[in-house]
Design brief:
- This protein is 31% helix and 19% strand.
- It is α/β, with parallel strands linked by helices.
- Strands 1-6-5-2-4 form a five-stranded parallel beta sheet, sandwiched between helices. It has a two-stranded antiparallel sheet with strand order 3-7.
- The longest helix is centred in the C-terminal third of the chain and has 12 residues, at 89-100.
């Protein structure tokens, strides 16, 4: 009766947590689409994870929804998606949005610092 109150997709999928070390290996192997949902100003200040696609949180629906005419090709391939932001909060919300768009394998990597701490390369 109150199914509309549940978060996430109707399929029962949920945003899982993925360790940065695992994400680094999956990005290197081309097994995952890595997404940085921070704002441009944040990227200019600290760089971004090597291999990451930059899609600011506010542009997710336009750039990541396969039904959108402006959807980026990376999000039409059906690959798992790993998301990070500055601390992990925005990436959690972004993951929920991606599930609602129909993506099924969505992972929250947490914050950019975790990527760096695990030895992930940074592009400036």
């Amino acid at each position: 009766m109150f199914g509309f109150l549940r978060s996430g997709s109707s399929s029962g999928a949920r945003v899982e947590r993925m360790a940065a070390r695992d994400a680094i290996a999956k990005v290197a192997a081309g097994e995952i689409v890595l997404v940085d949902v921070r704002e441009g100003m944040e990227l200019r200040a600290s760089g971004r994870a090597q291999g990451a696609v930059h899609v600011p949180f506010a542009a997710l629906r336009m750039k990541c929804d396969p039904s959108s005419p402006e959807c980026l090709k990376e999000f039409k391939q059906g690959k798992p998606i790993g998301i990070y932001c500055a601390s992990g909060a925005r990436s959690s919300g972004a993951g929920q949005m991606l599930l609602q768009m129909g993506h099924t394998a969505v992972y929250n990597l947490g914050g950019f610092y975790e990527w760096q701490s695990a030895g992930g390369k940074v592009v400036r």
